[in-house]
Specification:
Blueprint (H helix, E strand, L loop, with lengths): L1 H28 L2 H17 L6 H25 L1 H4 L17 H22 L2 H22 L6 H5 L1 H4 L1 H10 L4 H24 L1 H7 L4 H4 L1 H22 L8 H23 L6 H34 L7
Protein name: Protoheme IX farnesyltransferase
Organism: Salipiger marinus
InterPro entries: Protohaem_IX_farnesylTrfase, UbiA_prenyltransferase, UbiA_prenylTrfase_CS, UbiA_sf
């Protein structure tokens, strides 16, 4: 009798573990690490807007934007399951590893997309909901299905999808799109190419194996390093110019000066590196730039958030 009880308990524990793992797999479909950036930039756009938003409405807005971003991730994994299976970086994702079926990912992505758009519209306004719907469409159809496998400029144009969250947050608060919202969009849009090209430089074999026409594959490493430098210079100009707008101020300017100096230095190091250097040295240079790029965007939006907080007390901006 005791053996039966023990076996039953073990079976129950095993079933519970499998259920938890299954739920974790579904959550992984939503690309939680990418969602972190979506949530943060959307929150900054919401709080930087010159309109006070009720905390509950603001929470709902950010939640539904995050769900929309997660839905995009699930649909991206559904379509890209074939190339994910041959790339080391993505081979353990839920679909290529067989833990989740493609149809399940498609159903989850479609259901969450509809849910997020409708409830964002009900909670805030239909402009914000429309922008969220367009963002999901752009990421899934324009980038994932069309551009990603068609052109080395995939990440440049497709990067617009990741740049919309602060604009959606601003629209959720104000019911409109202003110059400030466009500036936050442009900051993320211009940051995306050097960020992903740096990743592609030290993960090139993955894209070669998968047949994805990243710039490193179609034009080579030298051309990619030139593109990184050019985009970084343009990004630095845009980031510094934003300091003198209504979303900027002394705090933002100080952050932008330091980080853009470091970012330009990193881009220059990648540009000028010697091809005869060991792969280990090249890997370190490119990986260091990639890690800096993660800090870069969070710090800029964090500075915008600080300026917005100071403005509530009449201390922000250049007044």
């Amino acid at each position: 009798m005791s053996d039966l009880t023990t076996n039953t308990a073990a079976t129950s524990a095993q079933g519970s573990f499998e259920t938890e793992a299954r739920l974790g797999d579904y959550f992984a479909l939503l690309k939680p690490r990418v969602m972190t950036l979506v949530v943060f930039t959307a929150l900054v756009g919401l709080l930087a807007a010159p309109v006070a938003v009720h905390p509950f409405v603001g929470f709902c807005a950010v939640l539904f934007i995050a769900i929309g971003g997660g839905a995009s991730g699930a649909l991206n994994m559904w379509w890209d399951a074939d190339i994910d299976a041959v790339m080391r970086r993505t081979a353990r994702r839920p679909i290529p590893s067989g833990r989740v079926q493609p149809g399940e990912a498609l159903g989850l992505g479609m259901a969450l997309s509809a849910f997020a758009v409708v409830f964002l519209g009900l909670a805030t306004n239909w402009l914000a909901a429309g922008l969220l719907a367009f963002t999901i469409f752009f990421y899934v159809v324009i980038y994932t299905i069309w551009l990603k496998r068609a052109t080395p400029q995939n990440i440049v144009i497709g990067g617009a999808a990741g740049a919309f969250p602060p604009m959606i947050g601003w629209a959720a608060a104000t019911g409109s799109v202003s110059v400030e919202a466009v500036l936050m969009f442009c900051l993320t849009f211009m940051w995306t190419p050097p960020h992903f090209w740096a990743l592609a430089l030290f993960m090139r074999s993955d894209y070669d194996d998968a047949g994805v026409p990243m710039l490193t594959v179609t034009h080579g490493r030298r051309a990619t390093r030139v593109h990184i430098l050019v985009y970084t210079v343009l990004l630095a100009g845009l980031a510094l110019a934003a300091a003198f707008t209504s979303i900027g101020g002394p705090v933002y300017l100080a952050v932008a000066l330091v980080l853009n100096a470091l970012f330009l230095k990193g881009a220059w190091d990648i540009f000028r590196r010697d091809e005869t250097q060991s792969e280990v040295d090249n890997f370190r240079t490119e990986r260091r730039f990639f890690k800096l790029s993660l800090l870069y965007l969070f710090a800029h939006f964090g500075a915008i958030l600080i300026e917005a907080g100071l403005a509530r007390y009449g201390l922000g901006g250049w007044a």
